[in-house]
Design goal:
22% of the residues lie in helices and 29% in strands. With 572 residues, the protein is of the alpha+beta class. It has an eight-stranded mixed β-sheet with strand order 10-8-11-7-14-16-18-19, sandwiched between helices. A six-stranded antiparallel β-sheet has the order 9-12-13-6-15-17. It has a five-stranded mixed β-sheet with strand order 1-5-2-4-3. A hairpin with a 4-residue loop joins strand 22 and strand 23. Helix 5 runs parallel beside helix 9 and helix 7 packs parallel to helix 8.
Length: 572
């Protein structure tokens, strides 16, 4: 006899521990009854407000991660899932109001919009293991490279080459000069919803689109350029500065929809937000590409989230795919949120198998807006980060949204050094080699990522003539940089002379070559949000190379500043 599960026996919630092989039956403890009663009341209130509600239904069908299956078994499971999803919609929801339904490919989930009667029928169905609210989440935006040692890693020969990062966001302007030629795959998973007044943002007007142009972002709505900015931080490549993994490729996936309800947008309309179900499809799409060896994916960036959790939220349905990605060596890197919390982080960053990221300032303090908790894993710069925006230009943004792609890019850099490294191995290296930063709000110390230790010796190029110096607050008249961050391939010295405030002469011995001007010089200020440095002039003099660096405050006054400088002598 088929057993029916009532509302007190079924999980009707966003976050419940599940079994994939059979319906979940709760015990009848007072605590459990109270929990389910509260969750039922929450859902019923939502239905009263909108007439229909949007839910992710987990079917009680056998399911295994595809990587564990041989090709024949994998295809058989896919067919079984398709049949179960179709039968569920046709039979289990017969006779109730269903305004929307969508199966999630290769996963035991179906997204439905139903009224209160439909929700009650889901609770009675023996084909349902659990029901989750299809939550709506927003961008984690609050309003660099040299600081985390990315340039040191590049000089050591590791810049993300051979790796691909996936950006699940608002889409990416693939022809932006900073991102030109880097976007190798595009997809869009977006949703129509009568209950929530949303429409898809895929360029074809449908809920799903893949292929060239599929992840082109929306325009005219606040936040549309968010994905382009995030992608640039992770893997942009420019002439004056670059993203962390400057030689990595990008998979761009749009998982946002357009909403016109002021109650959902929380103010001005329209707005862009993301459904949990669309994120699930985006994650599954990247997993499919990786399983098929179409791309060497190192990491996935999700600068998305909402809510607050003080502990691991491992009953979130996204964990199903995040775990499979992790088993393939792919990290899912997620922003911790910008709600100023000191004892919790956002969903889905709280999933224990994800890599949660908080934000620091360029002065290495935890950003005051950044969510923090003991379950947070890593920190990265997220205040006033410059990257690509619409119009082929660049702009500054702040938020854990900006800190997260620093880690996503760092992951690709580390994987370019060791492509077979596991997620655990990369995380351990970032934790142990990171700079400890203590959050004064809770006295919790977490590592701010640092790639400078990837430098295993002087860099090599065709002529062997390169000099790198890290000038740490050079306020003395004559300053010798720390050998920890200074080298040149000739084995000669590097000296910095400070004739005046904010003015420095940097001399690298033995890399000039032929006495003629030539080569390449790059300088970057760090440590002060309002300072900048530039090269006034540079030249080779016989065997030596000299560059003049001038540093300024935001108002244009000469100011002492820490900076990095990379000098390459004339190539033969």
């Amino acid at each position: 006899m088929q057993r029916k599960i009532g509302l007190k026996g079924l999980a009707v919630t966003s976050f419940v521990c599940l079994s994939f092989s059979a319906p979940t039956v709760f015990g009848q403890s007072m605590e459990r009854q109270s929990q389910v009663s509260d969750l039922k009341a929450k859902m019923e209130q939502k239905l009263q407000e909108s007439q229909t509600g949007r839910f992710i239904v987990q079917l009680s069908v056998p399911y295994q991660a595809e990587m564990k299956l041989d090709p024949s078994s994998k295809m058989a499971q896919r067919k079984s899932l398709e049949m179960a999803q179709a039968a569920f919609v046709e039979k289990e929801l017969a006779g109730v109001k269903v305004s929307y339904s969508k199966p999630l490919a290769n996963l035991p989930f179906v997204v439905v919009e139903v009224d209160a009667k439909g929700l009650d029928k889901l609770a009675q169905s023996g084909q349902v293991a659990a029901v989750y609210e299809d939550k709506i989440e927003g961008l984690l935006l609050k309003d660099s490279g040299p600081l985390i040692g990315a340039d040191v890693a590049w000089n050591a020969g590791f810049s993300g080459q051979g790796q691909t990062v996936a950006i699940l966001d608002t889409g990416v302007v693939s022809n932006h000069p900073f991102l030109s030629g880097k976007v190798v795959k595009e997809a869009c998973f977006s949703s129509t919803s009568t209950a929530n007044s949303s429409v898809p943002l895929c360029p074809n007007g449908q809920d799903i689109q893949t292929g060239s142009g599929a992840a082109q972002p929306c325009n005219g709505i606040a936040g549309c350029d968010h994905g382009t900015h995030v992608a640039g931080i992770a893997a942009g490549k420019g002439t004056n500065f670059s993203g962390v993994a400057k030689d990595a490729n990008i998979i761009a996936v749009n998982v946002f929809s357009k909403f016109t309800s002021s109650s959902i947008c929380g103010g001005a309309t329209p707005c862009i937000l993301s459904y949990t179900s669309d994120q699930l499809e985006g994650l599954q799409h990247v997993l499919t590409l990786a399983n098929a060896n179409q791309e060497k994916v190192s990491s996935i960036n999700m600068s998305i989230g909402g809510g607050k959790s003080t502990s691991a939220c491992d009953d979130d349905p996204r964990k199903v795919v995040i775990d499979q990605l992790r088993a393939l060596g792919i990290a899912t890197v997620i922003a911790s949120g910008n709600e100023f919390e000191s004892d919790g982080i956002s969903f889905p960053a709280c999933i224990s198998s994800a890599i949660s990221v908080g934000s620091t300032t360029k002065a290495d303090a935890v950003s005051n807006f950044s969510n923090s908790a003991s379950i947070l894993k890593l920190l990265a710069p997220g205040s006033s980060i410059e990257s690509s925006v619409f119009g082929n230009g660049f702009g500054l943004k702040s938020g854990t949204s900006m800190a997260t792609p620093q880690v996503t890019g760092a992951w690709a850099v580390l994987k370019s050094k060791n492509p077979s490294a596991t997620v655990d191995a990369v995380l351990t290296r970032l934790e142990t080699e990171g700079k400890p930063i203590t959050d004064p709000r809770n006295n919790i110390t977490k590592p701010r990522i640092d790639l400078s230790k990837l430098d295993d010796g002087p860099p090599k190029d065709k002529s062997g003539k390169r000099c790198y110096a890290w000038a740490n607050n050079p306020t003395a008249t004559s300053y010798t940089p720390s050998t920890t961050y200074s080298y040149n391939s000739s084995g000669k010295g590097i000296t910095i002379t400070r004739p005046n405030t904010g003015n420095y002469s940097v001399k690298c011995e033995g890399i000039g070559g032929d006495g003629k001007s030539g080569g390449h010089v790059q300088v970057t200020a760090y440590g002060f949000d309002t300072h900048s440095c530039k090269i006034r002039y540079w030249s080779s003099f016989g065997k030596d190379f000299v560059a003049n660096v001038a540093c300024y405050s935001e108002d244009g006054a000469s100011k002492d500043s820490r900076f990095t400088i990379l000098i390459e002598g004339p190539m033969k």
